[in-house]
Amino acid sequence: MTAVPNNAASPSYRFNWLNSLWPWLCAASVALSLLMLGALLTLLLVRGLGHFWPATLEEVTLRSGDIFAGHAVREVALPLQEGDERLYFTGNRDLEGARWRWVKVEEIVERTQPVDLIRLERSPWDDFIGRLVAVEQAEQRWEGEAAWQRLTALLALPASQRQESQLLLTTANGQTLRQPLANVIHAQAPNAMSWWQKTLAWGDAVWRFLSEGPRAANTSGGVWPAIFGTVLMVILMSVIVTPFGVLAAIYLNEIAHQGRLTRFVRIGVRNLAGVPSIVYGVFGLGVFVYGIGGSLDEWFFSDTLPSPTFGTGGLLWASLTLALLTLPVVIVATEEGLARIPDAQREGAVALGATRLEMLTRIVLPMAAPAMLTGVILAVARAAGEVAPLMLVGVAKLAPQMPIDGEFPYLHLERKFMHLGYHLFDTAFHGEDVQAAIPLVYATALLLVLIVLVLNLTAIFLRHYLRRQRGNEC
Amino acid sequence: MIPPRLTTSRQPLRLLQDRVATGLITAGGVGVLMAILAIGVFLVWETLPLLAIGDTLALAKLSPMAWGTLKAALSALLFAIPVALGAAIYSALFMSARLRSRIKPTLEMMEAIPGVVVGFIAGLILAPWVERHLASTLVLIIWLPLSAALAGLLWQLTKTRLRRYFPLSWAGLWLVPWLAIMMALALWLTPWIEQQWLGGDLRLLLDQRFGIDYATRNALIVGIAMGFAVIPGIYSLAEDALADVPNTLIEGAQALGASRWQALWKVALRAAGPGVFSAVMIGAGRAVGETMIVLMASGNTALLSASPFEGMRTLSAAIAIELPEAAPGGLTYHLLILAALVLFIFTFLVNTLAEVVRQRLRRRYRQMGGPS
Amino acid sequence: MLASLHSANTAQAPVTHFSPEHCCLSIDHFSLAYAGKEALRNLTLSVPRHRVTAFIGPSGCGKSTLLRAINRLHDLNESVTHNGRITLEGQDIHGPHVNVTELRRRVGMVFQTPNPFPMSIYENVAFGLRLQQRLTKRKRDDIIEWALTSAALWDEVKDRLHRSAWQLSGGQQQRLVIARTLAVQPDVLLLDEPASALDPISTLKIEELIRNLKSELTLVLVTHNMQQAARVSDYTAFLHQGELVEYGPTDQVFTNPLLQHTENYITGRIT
Questions:
Q1: CA distance C143 to chain B (A)
Q2: Which domains does chain B have, with CATH numbers?
Q3: Which residues are CB-contacts of B311 (< 8 A; sequence separation ≥ 6)?
Q4: At what angle do helices A434-473 and A420-430 cross, to 10 degrees?
Q5: Disruptive mutation site among B5, B8, B15, B18 for chain C (greatest number of C CBs within 10 Å)
Q6: A64-120 pLDDT, tens per residue?
Q7: CB within 8 A of B31, min separation 6: which ones?
């Protein structure tokens, strides 16, 4: 296995010696790929999960005498000058007009971390960073430490049971603010927290990210509607794609005359897996939305025209388009599974007097089931990460209504829905404050990658297990 | 012991069931296949009105995007082909079997990472970073292969005992920290070099001295990001082709006195050539049709420029942006569907070509007495 | 050598015939071709009831093809064409009113490599039964016990009927396949080199089973093992290149063949 040429005495020694560096370049390609993959995943993990860790708040005094509070985000070199500048997240958009502040590092005179700095999550106006002076409720008033205890006690109650209260707040530079409790979602005093409390708070923040809806134009809050929309769309898609994909595979492998035509069709189906997803989106828009959806509207929903019901993108059309997109995946995987079943099994069943249907349902399909499952999981993994076709057939940046609710007929196939991938794209590129949204985009991207990777790993293990099992038999 | 006679009264029913089911499966299967076929028919049908209009100006509107598509795909392939083929050659021919059984699925896992995530990283994280560190990026492109060669050089100069701890068959793994260190070294040194010889800022220099504009989201970024997305596909197929080269061929060449690398280069690569070619073709198909990455990392400006530091707008991105707004039946609508048709035909042809080449190769291997 | 081979092909040895009341299966001028390539040429012979008939011959002589034709397994392959008649108990098996699944139930087939289904031992035997009619569990259990006993397997598996059939040894698997076939009570049992993939002890067990079964049904055995044919069969047909060379009582074919060609094959001078 050594790459060192052992014909050192030959005249072409020098040539060979240079030549033997080639394997190292090839090995470096593997290393580079691993490095890129590792870097991407690490970046997503660190930034996606790190965002939820309660950041230490600083009180910064500038040379000009200005004081503000916030947490440092990053530091970059100043263009065309010596020195660095640092970005602080300061919140308080209602008071300052911005949530960010760039500061030259050399201008900073003092940085402290007072334990009484708190951070409130509010809606509207998002984060507040400053100090709590008092809590006022009807005639009562709590101050100092008691105020903070009262506030946390109130926030622990469900929103409906909280009594009408006012918070008296001051910012680091001395502005005061009266804040109705009804607008406060969450309060935190990160500088006063122990390591263990921070961990708990982190877990809580992750949970709220997964279970809550977005706020402040998608720049904070959670992604629950997007998770829900993605899962629902993928479930609908697999319900459509599984029977049809399996049917087509059975037809191709078990029933069709195995001639030239079948071979061409097979190559064609295989190649459709390589057709860009956006082309399926165009097909979905032209045929499902404008064609079928438009006709449905004319026949059944003519009273609401010209505002379309089915004639615009929606859950059903998105599921159908993705089903068509993933059909080749399911067909190819199922066919592979069917082809792996030895003919002896088929002949054994037929020789016992089974009809073709009985042979298929009792012997062949049970044996091919893991392969079909693998195909469906791969299809789901592909559909979960696919965004481009959805942009044409029914995804929304912010869906006002969930596609499932208590209203008849409970499942609303015509509604637009939110999708994790599109949510990511939209927040990252069309948000009003991209800087504020980026941490959430990281978290969303991490979630999406995790979902897709877990699905793919399941498919790989299933396939591996299946091959091992077959291997024992033959 | 004599068992009870079996009755066969269910026979007609069973036969009927069988016939009905066969009919249904046939109908369903043919129906599904027709539905798939309908994609092509629909695209052609919707572009026919364009023929009636015969507006050449409208077609001219597509040409910058066609150029953008080509530019994006080419820059991606420029990055992906060397890396993917190098990785394929290494893991098929040099890597230890144990490492290979782990590395291959890992690299194939890269393919599963959604385009929208890659696009986000490229557009919002990588692009601003490269803009600030343009010189370092360019240095890295040259420095990384050099540092790999340096590792090989050092390896050959070291004593045999040390070599045993760092065998070539595991180099794919232990070169990772080496490359990381080399990368850090380059990033640390480049600003100093830039200061000394390039007047402090390469971007400024390019602009003032050569009049080259620099857009944050440009072909370089697209090349790296989409290359990242295309690498696993090319790697996986090329690796299969190389690993399937019958061992008798390589051993035969070595028996004739060729060193291992020469044997591989001359014999394995030539034998697997068609397979490698089809892998590249399929990668090209994917690069041409990829939407989210170019949408997020290319800047979406419809320019006819060859500069690697300028953006572009591809056919797929144009469809994704403009089609939802285009009125059905209008000129833009038909034009965008024509764009989809072009993508469809291109990828379909490329994939078919690749598939045919691959099948022919498999047959040839079988004749040479290879595996399977 | 070549000359003798040639003469053998042209000269037809006298073929044993059976009266209709003793004849179970009769093959009459039967030819078969795969995609135009002829595999069986104008075969005529009849198989006696409740006897073991062996088909022998070098590989590729068409003996397995003939066996599969009796079961109509070639129906699965569209490129196969045939000519002539095969009659089972006086009925043409290719006739227009013949029900193929019923034919296959009556003509059981056991393949070269054991092919138990991926299910329990019990379910393997019950497979054919479930297709035919709904039986009460007790009746079904009775038939399964009977079939496994007839295949000399009951004692070995009665404690693990619900274990996977793939855990059995090769010989046990082959006897399970025979039991599975017996359970649907066929009239004829076709065995396609049933012992070629087995060890000597398993082979002996299968041979004993074949001898025991002939009181119940007609057996046709394809084998390339001459000793096996001599040990278990009553009649032997020698096929070569798709044609019948010699057919008669086993004793006569092995000890006193009528044709030089047969003798050459039996004594191992040609393979």
A1: 6
A2: 58-131+213-368 (1.10.3720.10)
A3: B215, B217, B218, B219, B298, B299, B300, B301, B303
A4: 150
A5: B8
A6: 888 888 888 888 777 667 778 888 888 888 887 778 888 888 888 888 888 888 888
A7: none
